[in-house]
Amino acid sequence: MDHAHQPRVVIVGGGVGALEAALALRAIAGPVPTIEVVSPSDTFVYRPLTVTEPFGAAPSAELPLSALRETHDVAHVRSTVAAVHPDAHEIELEGGDRLRYDALLVAVGARPRAWLDGAVTFRGHGDVPAVQEILQGIREGRIDDLAFAAPPGASWTLPLYELALLTAAWVADENITRINLAFATKEQTPLADFGPAASATVRDLLGDRGVRMHHQATGFDGRLLTLDGEPAIRADAVITMAELVGNPLPGLPHTDEDFIPTDDFAAVDGVPDVWAVGDATNYPVKQGGLAAQQADTAAAAIAAAIGVPVTPEKSDPVMRGLLLTGVTSAYLRGDKGTSDAAFDPLWWPPTKLAGRYLAPYLADHHQIDPAKQQLHDRHPVEAAAKDREEMRRLAVEFAEADARWGDYESALRWLRTIEWVDGVLPIEHDELRRRWESELAASR
Ligand SMILES: Cc1cc2nc3c(=O)[nH]c(=O)nc-3n(C[C@H](O)[C@H](O)[C@H](O)COP(=O)(O)OP(=O)(O)OC[C@H]3O[C@@H](n4cnc5c(N)ncnc54)[C@H](O)[C@@H]3O)c2cc1C
Fold first, then answer.
1. Which of 23-37, 250-264, 379-393 is predicted with the least confidence, judged by mean pLDDT?
2. What is the DSSP string of 150-174?
3. Is the domain of 125 the same as that of 271?
4. Residue located nearest, by CA, to atom 53 of ligand 1
5. 47 CA to centre of ligand 1 in angstroms
């Protein structure tokens, strides 16, 4: 690499991997390189909380990519990359213009593909009305059997488990008793990527909420969901996630499924000065937290390549997943053969997108997720002792505030949170519960 001029780093994409890489590179390399992010969209969309929108939560936040110019001297080029020309060290934009790079980082994500005819495929904000229509169908008694079907191919299925658990909590809040909830997946145990302890916790959560587990779904005719190696089950409606296929860039190598092959330092196989991270790569698990860790690895490798005195380290990713359950959140972690699950944060800040630089950035600049510190893991016992007390205090405070507003439903939900975490509701709170339950009944 020629260092006579200011090194030019180009990042393709405007999602999790691209943003984390831009922030990490600026942190590691300081003002040395110019950094440009090429993405067709003007905003970064925060997807993790879109699963809560069908149940009444506000639309998820969007962050203008132009903000990166002010905060980190990162320019946004609004365009789609049509091809990479590695020999010339150039990318070709839609329309034919070319941009030179010294180092190129590709974070173009994967392409979502609907795979189950007749099902609602949940990809984020745009699919919220279709899920709300299903909830309305349940309320009106048109839907008695609802199934959640995980795709057979590559996908990040944690949001589908969240939709199932959030639906179960919503059904309980609505006092609907005749609904049957089912979850079909090829996994032997739910969310097995997090390891046995975490997976057993998710299995128990689903069981406690009456969500029955089934084998992989293979087809849906509007009435029956056919399953692999098991008799079909009745389903009035089915919710699924998209299957992810690669998003190949002409000029770069790709696997049969169109994913970009990379090594342990996130370098693209056989292509000098090009790195790739996230859902676009052939790494088998597609998750934002992993994309962010790969982006940190790539940023260090790029910094070293442009002459910054830093020793790049091999990527050694840790799985961190925050599962929204409708009552309290479950923290799942899988790391080199160990598996943890807890209802207190197992990492700090306790964000859904566990990116070392992205999480604090989103919190500081855009009030997304309460993250003010650098990402670090916590021991389950330390986490439990510290957070339980604080959580209990906050839950009572919120419950009382909701009750003052006359929102007894929400107040009672907060009490259920305490009961869920402690296993029992203290006597003084039990009295509150009875009072609020009768207020709620009187208001109906
Ligand atoms: C509903 C839902 C909820 C989720 N919740 C979580 C969660 O809680 N935690 C978590 O860790 N993960 C979560 N995920 C997964 C997470 O969103 C992805 O794994 C993550 O976004 C992958 O990051 P990425 O940078 O590889 O790709 P993306 O974030 O998808 O970004 C790809 C970017 O590349 C751009 N692009 C594409 N092609 C081109 C091109 N040719 N030229 C220029 N730009 C291009 C796109 O416009 C986009 O900006 C969730 C996913 C979904 C669908």
1. 379-393
2. --SSS---HHHHHHHHHHHHHHHHT
3. no
4. 123
5. 8
